[in-house]
Description:
It holds the Pfam family Glycos_transf_1. Belongs to the glycosyltransferase 1 family. One of its GO terms (molecular function) is sucrose-phosphate synthase activity. This protein is α/β, with parallel strands linked by helices. It has 4 domains: 213 residues, Rossmann fold; 191 residues, Glycogen Phosphorylase B (Rossmann fold, 3-Layer(aba) Sandwich); 179 residues, Rossmann fold (3-Layer(aba) Sandwich); 70 residues, Hypothetical Protein Ta0175, Chain: A, domain 2 (Alpha-Beta Complex), CATH 3.90.1070.10. It has 25 helices and 26 strands. α3 packs across α6, α9 packs across α15 and α18 packs across α25. It starts with 7 loop residues before the first strand and ends with a helix.
Amino acid sequence: MTSKKVEHYILLISVHGLIRGRNLELGRDADTGGQTKYVVDLARALACQPSVGRIDLATRLIDDPDVDADYREALEPLDKNAQIVRIPAGPEGYIKKEELWDYLDIFADNLLEWLRLQPRMPDVIHSHYADAGYIGVRLSLLTGIPLVHTGHSLGRDKLGRLLAMGLSSDLIEQRYHISKRISAEEDVLANAELVVTSTRNEIAEQYELYDYYQPDRMVVIPPGTDLEQFYPAENKIKIAFAKTLESFLTHPKKPMILALSRPDERKNIVSLIQAYGESPELQKLANLVIVAGNRDDIREMDEGAQAVLTEILLLTDYYDLYGRIAIPKHHKQEEVPDIYRLAAQSKGVFVNPALTEPFGLTLLEAAACGLPLVATENGGPVDIIGACHNGILVDPLDSGEIARALLEVLNSPKKWEKFSEKGLKNVRKLYSWDAHAQKYLETIRPLLEHHPEFPKIPRVRGDLSYRDRAVFSDIDQSLLGSPDGLKAFAAYLAENRKKVFFGVATGRRLDSAIAILKRNGLPTPDVLITSLGTEIVYSPQMTPDSAWARHIDYHWNPKAIRRIIGDLPGLTLQSKSEQSRFKISYHYDAEQAPTVEEIQTLLRQEEQAVNVYLSFGQFFDIVPVRASKGLALRYFAQQWRLSLERILVAGGSGADEDMMQGNTLAVVVANRHREELSGLREPERIYFAAQPFALGIIEAIEHYDF
């Protein structure tokens, strides 16, 4: 008997932008660009491979009258084996990627809940960009499913460029939430089994900026090109988009210098217009066509696009380029191949003058239609032109060099033909989606072997099975501190004993937690998450969850950690009674010790993927990367089939943050350390109580009508 062939199931995650299977609105805004096209094309290409049984592309569900109804459909087929899955998270309306950070935990919780309803879990999770990377890390740590990541662009690189442009650190943080993005990218690099890049430049010059830099976990797999859409036109065929340009151009038959990108400052369209405006020879020889997204009213566009388009119009007027430049207001995605073909028919050139280009998919599309290239020397074009030998690299900040390169191609019919032919040949040879998908699957094959799903153990029997909600609290500075509050909370538990789980999630060890609860007259919890999420124990027999212990042992190396930070000033090991198998605890002296961020950087540089916590300003703890109060709480909820929306969690310090984000109902009780949680901003699910300690929990029970 032959064994049944196992077909692979890959989950792609790309959260922001407007993603659908047809008529992609590329260039609509800064979030709907090359990445949205890449992930849709990748999903389709992988679904066509014989070893792949299922591809899901998870993105955010958007219900907004200002965008098409397509984006509110929960499921959209892409191929017989591929679909888009839209997950609700945060506001129903469409918001920029920089405003999504507060809702990513909700996305992760909702996506995991959706996955649990599927016949099987994915073999691999592949996240795209930092926001999806944050979600991918959460899912991977909870389930053990290996994570693959593609950055598309990187926060540290962006930060450097923004600072070089003269923006202040405070403004960058306010506008881009750059610290959250960089932190998420560091976590991705610490946890991803593989990072897929488009170019060698990404590895050598961009990822090298990160603490957890492991080039041996990175692989270059250039994106593919849809050769069924992008191909050269027959010389005499009429292309409808020519009519659109005729209204702008005095001599529309001249060769076309074509730029196609979002109206984004990084795309550096302004330098191209300066190069053209300062070269009478170039103006005489060719028309300039700028296809920069779609617009109805520049005044209603976001600040960045508005500034770029305004500058384009001002420069057009300054250089008096009327009749020689076309800046169409609208184009459809299906017209893009014809725009390239129209430029090629005119014996024109495609130019990408971006300050830096992570890859340059438009270069491949243009080359597949027969256009020679002039492109930035920063980023992906170095690889593309180096492999295809079909154009010239330029310094994007040197408008004179841009003009000279364009003239070199336009003035030499032989060079034009050579670049055109080499581009056509080599794009088909090196950059097809089928070749990309085959190399991708070959690269991730070791990850596609069977991996254990969410650890499972037999449930503890007894009356716990009848409970349909839970209250979890930290102990110190959250539950304890008010005798009146403890009485009220104990009365609540007694009254609801048959339907409410009582759990604690604490940094204390098990014996210490039980002892202090007993001393304060509280009943033994049904579930104890202790030592910062590294232990889960069920009463009444105090049964430890051995499956959880096996799960979090992943990459845990306490000896190496003690060696790395043991001699740092201001860190003193706590007593043996505060240490455990999966927790290393120090006293922390803020006046002498490095900052938490500096210690975390040191650990990352030494390739230690861990979670670190500073509590109450004086206790510094290190636990395995798969362990935290929030991850342990979600494991419990899964084991007991308990919806996170039916769990109320109470906390009062920074160590409680990750169990309070996402779909749980949360209360920050009043205490002197609550400012450590001041960054929590989800008003429907996070309540800041006026009352201290257990009184704050009772206040939240009434607030949520729990």
